[in-house]
Design goal:
alpha+beta, Alpha-Beta Plaits, 4 strands
């Protein structure tokens, strides 16, 4: 299962977010049930970032979302948002990366 989350930060907070992310990225990337994560930054608006993470199951994602790790991350970054976050849970219909 793939989780895509769009986050848009206040312009004066994007550097704070990127610095914070560098300190917590491995906690998420190695969370039980997570098979890897990427942070993607929009080329036209660098205040917009996407997290792209791969999870073994919806239960693994839910365990993360209710964990102290997630709650701590979210409580830190949420005040920096310029817009409400948007999230999608999807399955890959075609995956050309696995060639």
């Amino acid at each position: 299962m793939i989780r895509i989350v769009k986050l848009q930060f206040q312009p004066e907070k994007i550097a704070d977010f990127l610095s914070f992310f560098d300190g917590i990225k491995e906690k998420v990337n190695t969370f039980p049930g997570c098979n890897g994560m990427q942070l993607l930054q929009d080329l036209e608006n660098p205040c917009i970032v996407f997290t792209y993470s791969n999870w073994n199951s919806p239960n693994d994602l839910e365990n993360y979302r209710t964990s102290e790790t997630f709650i701590g991350i979210w409580s830190t970054i949420k005040p920096w948002f310029a817009e409400k976050a948007a999230a999608w849970s999807v399955d890959a219909y075609f995956d050309g990366f696995e060639l």
